[in-house]
């Protein structure tokens, strides 16, 4: 019994005592395994490159979004500053106007006056 039957253990598994090409079968089997390893490594290498590229693109996109948001934030802060200055200015204008406004010093009760024009006329200096 120098050779196992192909149906019992597979066609590629032969005893080392076989004189009809067992060395070639073993070399062929080793070569097939080696080829599969090479293909698997290549496939894995390509997948890793693709993954790294995708990760880099995602990081680049996040960085661009960050830059855009920073610019928008800076612009909004400038607008807040301008609006704050405008509020201060208008508050001062109102305060200055309140000191000279004849309507604020008028003794006429506006609720009982039927027409605003009459109230304005009665409060204005003559």
From TrEMBL:
User: Which residues belong to any copy of the BZIP domain?
Assistant: 34-97
Which controlled-vocabulary keywords does the entry list?
Activator, DNA-binding, Nucleus, Repressor, Transcription, Transcription regulation
Identify the GO cellular component terms for this protein: nucleus
Feature: compositional bias, Basic and acidic residues: 57-66
**Entry keyword Nucleus:** yes
Q: Where is this region: Disordered?
A: 1-75
Q: Which domain of life is it from?
A: Eukaryota
Q: Which GO terms describe its molecular function?
A: DNA-binding transcription factor activity, RNA polymerase II-specific; RNA polymerase II cis-regulatory region sequence-specific DNA binding
Q: Does the keyword Transcription apply?
A: yes
Which Pfam families does the record associate with it? Answer: bZIP_1
Compositionally biased spans, kind Polar residues: 1-32
Query: What family is this?
Result: Belongs to the bZIP family.
Q: What does this protein do?
A: AP-1 family transcription factor that controls the differentiation of lineage-specific cells in the immune system: specifically mediates the differentiation of T-helper 17 cells (Th17), follicular T-helper cells (TfH), CD8(+) dendritic cells and class-switch recombination (CSR) in B-cells.
Spell out the protein name for this chain. Basic leucine zipper transcriptional factor ATF-like
The species this protein belongs to is: Pelobates cultripes (Western spadefoot toad)
